[in-house]
């Protein structure tokens, strides 16, 4: 079932498995669309449950049909830990997705895990994005002046956080930086870096992928209660924001 509001569409499915199947089809369609239009596909990954929900993309027919050679991968947020640490969003994505498809190594942009502090890791990630802009690998939005990705795949926590932008933390209000840092994330591990809202909201397409009953209150507040002021409610896209919900996550709408 679909419900449209402005440049937002809300898709509700019976089960998490139905969400996973629809998500694979949606990503593959956008991959084809962007590669036809501009010859490349810049994708931003979250951590968390998203990676498992992307599982059908690594299977037939998508594994063979998608032109992985044109993909580039970035991270919406990352924990400041070594890339082989169990808490690393890169490791999660590598184990569950990237190791199973053939995206060129040079197109994968994890954080530099040799940086010792969240400040320096955020600074470094932003600088590397500025270099990609200078090389015309990443375009800037004509509207915001921030980097414009083709597709961001965004998860949400039960507290309404997206990326590492949490309620009751100032990072969600950052307006200038492309990448910022947090040292006291309420969800462990505490040191993280994260894209900021002006950058997130410059994306052409965004998929909010939210499943499970423990997300039902946050989904209700974000979609139906503007006063809740949760970070998830601040997500918008320059093109279309598409919510993928299962029955449990949508149960209080
Ligand atoms: O800590 C994080 O949490 C969010 C939400 O994760 P989920 O397990 O509730 O899906 C995730 O999107 C983010 O990338 C991650 O660092």
Describe the structure.
The protein has helices at residues 16-38, 50-53, 62-65, 89-96, 118-134, 197-200, 216-224; strands at 2-5, 8-13, 41-45, 71-75, 77-79, 151-154, 179-182, 192-195, 205-210, 240-246. By secondary structure, the chain is an alpha/beta fold. The chain has a single domain (13-204, 214-226), classed as Rossmann fold. The strands form two sheets. It has a seven-stranded mixed sheet. A three-stranded antiparallel sheet has the order 5-8-7. The longest helix has 23 residues, at 16-38. The two termini are 13 Å apart. The structure holds the ligand O=C1O[C@H](COP(=O)(O)O)[C@@H](O)[C@H](O)[C@H]1O. The site of ligand LXAUTJHC has 13 residues, from loops.
Give keywords.
seven-stranded mixed sheet; hydrolase; three-stranded antiparallel sheet; 7 helices; alpha/beta; binds ligand LXAUTJHC; Rossmann fold; 253 residues
